[in-house]
Specification:
The chain has helices at 3-10, 12-31, 35-42, 48-62. By secondary structure, the protein is an all-alpha fold. It is elongated. Keywords: Membrane, Transmembrane, Transmembrane helix.
């Protein structure tokens, strides 16, 4: 399964629409009789899966809490010795 699809699985309600749009792009490309003329325009919807799904996959890594000094410690209050 591509990484974009894993990212789409993190948000099921949104992921269903994302996978449907990507599938529409692939099926439109496959069903079109002359892809040499409009091929790049038809496959645009298939690019939604990696473009939107990969950031959804990496979202937990970007929103992790950063450890800081403990509350109430002298360094947190700006007190130095």
């Amino acid at each position: 399964m591509p990484p974009g699809a894993w990212g789409a699985r993190r948000r099921p309600a949104f992921g269903v629409f994302l996978l449907a749009a990507a599938g529409t792009g692939i099926l439109t490309q496959a069903g079109h009789p002359d892809i040499t003329i409009f091929g790049d325009r038809l496959i645009v919807l298939a690019w939604l899966l990696p473009v939107v799904g990969v950031p959804l996959l990496l979202e937990p890594l970007l929103h992790r809490p950063v450890p800081g000094p403990a509350q109430g410690s002298p360094r947190a209050a700006g007190v130095t010795r």
